[in-house]
Amino acid sequence: MDFLIFQVPMLTVQAVLDGLLLGILFALIAYGMALQWGVMNIINIAQGDLVILGGYIAYFMYLYGIHPAWGVIVSPIIMYFVGVIIYKLVINKVVDRDLFISILATFGISILFMQLMNFAFGADVVLANSGYGTTMLFDNSVTLPNSKIFSAFISILFAIGLVIYMKKSKLGRAIRATAQNARAAKILGVDTEKVYAATFGINAALCGVAGALISITFTIHPYMGLPYTIRSFMIVIVAGLGNLPGVAMSGMGLGVFEEFADYILGTEFRIGSVFLLLVLILVYRRFKLSKKREYLK
Amino acid sequence: MNKNIILYAAILIFGIAAPFVFPAFKVQLSILCILIILAITWNVQGGEMGYNTFGNILFYGLGMYLCASVQVGMFFPLAEWTEGGGEKTFVHTPAQFFQGFAVGLAVAAIVPAIVAGLIDYSILGLRGHYFAICTLGLGVAAGEISGGIEIIGAGQGFTTPPFPKVGSLEARGEFFYFCSFAVLIFTFLAVKAIYSTRFKLVLNAIRDNEDKAEAMGIQTMKYKIIGWMISAFFCGLAGGIMGGLVGYIDSTDVAFDGREMGVFMVLMAILGGKGTLWGPVIGATVFHIFKEGFWTFFLGWQYVALGVLIVVIVIYFPEGIMGWLREKYPERFGEVVDEADRKAQVELK
């Protein structure tokens, strides 16, 4: 076997850098998932489709001559309302029910979104060209598109902003209180219904930011949602709920893993290796816990 | 009891006569049989055992690929066949075709069951939504990986051997219909027999409270593994027949089709009523009729309808048709109803 990556050592640097920058984006999506999982105890299979929808918003701005980087502002605002509408229509009926019900219901939303996006935007792979150019490092052996650096920077900015918002603002405190104990929060006068709607909206807005950045840096396609859901789920279970540095670290780790899988196994196995890694991580955790006679639940 | 025999006889007669009475719907009826098998097998996990799996599609697709590969590989080089145009250069004689298909089906049933037995110990230790997501990942991973393997056609797909003409008789539709119908009866009787033993009670105990079941001295892991192996066995059979019926295997669109079959089997079982013997059968029939009607008249909007249907069924109809009937006519299900209690409840409402 002659792997390109072992013949050209600089590709390792390339893969690591690409992976880190990609991983920051994953971490942003996973942060949204951890938020709603922690607060509402819901696993949203449609997470990835919200990301793609956010990406299409930026893409359409690009089509109409607006610089797609503005999508980072516009997309979360639109996606917040999309999230609130989804919450009002579907999610509020599954919040206190069995988790499998929420998985299935959001699976339905995911299929619905996939097909509606396919109708509305066509089945082509598209990207919004930001025209940022590329940076060359190490004697031109490592190429780094500036859009990737931009997207990582914006993701970090949004993540920090959200952390501060959750700590300081009234709504943030209400969200944290509801996550700790929804019933007690209700007794103390928190309108949990509103908190849930806001949480889902914020999650969708984060997906919108990530989607806009993905449409600038990579490509988007109506059926590409599910891998993003699985990635964010994986990041959350590795890091644990409410562990923000962990989410960032495991997100970047996953990004690097994917880049290496891409180089070593080949691009056709990239998505497959992500899903396989999920299974392996779950099985590993199951055996680790079973030593203590516990189980993942 | 007497009533049941009449019912079963009526279904059997209808099943045997159907392809001759409705010759235009032979393929649809075969697909209906396959869907019912998948719904019944899903119900063993999701309904009776409480382990909501998205991963049964893995065994279905595995069975499909195995059956076709064995059928080709027994007589011709598999790699040359899949390289393109193999089905034009190599032609199965009728004897080879049926021999290959029979062996292929046997392999398609047994190997997935063994695979299920091997991976079960690791995966069935997960519970609740971790199990659901893990099996979802397993199904998608299988599809993605099989789409990269050259010998079974990779991305361009795998054409199963074309049905041979015996003399001047062309009976492709009838052959696959009776295959699937026979497997359906086999599955139904096997599951019915299993449900009348202690095994079903154990599965229900696991669903209701696994820790307590274990504390009562039941080796839950053993029963969970056996339960999943039974599912895998019948899923593999169904997949093998479906591969021959469709005539073309694609990794993500036909075999490991989590977006369609993988969701359908869950939906059908829930629509009919989880945890009942007849629920999946009724659910699959209703679903298939609805689906075909919708697919025909609103082509293109089918996935939109599917998404809406999932959300509506899951939110407003989680008990399914059997659950609804049970609430309405509890006497029919052998429940003793206290009239006074019932009246009091009506007044309360």
Walk me through this protein's architecture:
The complex is a heterodimer of chains A (297) and B (349). Chain A is mostly helical and 297 residues long. Chain A has one domain (4-270): ABC transporter involved in vitamin B12 uptake, BtuC (Orthogonal Bundle), CATH 1.10.3470. Helix content of chain A is 75%, strand content 3%. Chain A has helices spanning 4-7, 10-40, 47-63, 71-94, 99-121, 146-168, 170-180, 182-187, 192-217, 225-239, 244-265, 270-290; strands spanning 134-137, 142-145. Chain A has a two-stranded antiparallel ribbon with strand order 1-2. In chain A, helix 2 (10-40) packs across helix 11 and helix 7 crosses helix 9. Chain A is globular, with a radius of gyration of 19 Å. Chain B is an all-alpha fold. Chain B has a single domain (24-318), classed as ABC transporter involved in vitamin B12 uptake, BtuC. Chain B has 17 helices and two strands. Chain B has helices spanning 2-21, 26-49, 56-73, 78-82, 86-89, 94-123, 128-146, 172-195, 198-208, 210-215, 220-246, 251-255, 258-272, 279-297, 302-316, 320-328, 339-348, and strands at 158-159, 248-249. In chain B, strands 1-2 form a two-stranded antiparallel ribbon. In chain B, helix 2 (26-49) runs parallel beside helix 8 (172-195) and helix 2 (26-49) crosses helix 13. The two termini of chain B are 36 Å apart. The interface between A and B is large, with 44 and 41 residues.
